[in-house]
Design goal:
The protein contains five helices and no strands. By secondary structure, it is mainly alpha-helical. Helix 1 packs antiparallel against helix 4.
């Protein structure tokens, strides 16, 4: 099914981009200069924002029709979707907490650079770990579930929705 192959090619390419952004955040975090330097802290914050914007505005809209179409097809598929949604929500929460701590440190409202650094570091490391597992599950388990349950016509609708989302993201 060409539509399925095209849809997964786009999704996997975006997963690769998310992994690249996670690596950039991780590199900036591990550099450590952001703890005591305004410009490096701003750069870390900007990388996190870039990751969030790409995930929310570019990647997630492409999966809406796929998830809606798969939902209700099997207990296994529904359990997977629930787990993926839960992980995604946890990842969102971790990034919100990390950016809140970075904002507090930048404004001087945080108590102690070391505690802020430890807190931000722990949040971002946990986010990275969860997000990488999430992406791997989408690439493997979600791929398998969609291959097992979606028809040719449904794949055409999914591919079409991805195409529309790509056009909207460019606009």
């Amino acid at each position: 099914m060409l539509a399925a192959e095209c849809a997964w090619a786009v999704l996997r390419a975006e997963h690769a981009r998310i992994r690249e952004l996670l690596n950039l955040v991780n590199d900036a975090l591990n550099d450590g200069g952001w703890v005591c330097s305004g410009p490096q802290a701003k750069a870390l914050f900007a990388l996190i924002e870039r990751l969030q914007v790409f995930d929310h505005a570019t990647h997630r809209p492409k999966g809406v029709v796929l998830v809606q179409t798969l939902r209700g097809r099997s207990v296994e598929a529904d359990d997977l979707l629930i787990r993926l949604e839960s992980t995604r929500d946890r990842c969102d929460d971790l990034l919100l907490q990390a950016t809140a701590k970075l904002k507090a440190a930048a404004s001087g409202a945080a108590s102690g650079a070391a505690s802020v650094a430890d807190g931000v570091g722990a949040l971002l490391h946990e986010h990275r770990k969860l997000m990488l597992v999430h992406l791997d599950e989408e690439d493997s388990l979600l791929h398998s579930q969609t291959a097992a349950h979606l028809t040719r016509e449904e794949w055409a609708a999914v591919a079409s929705s991805i195409s529309v989302a790509m056009g909207e993201a460019k606009a």
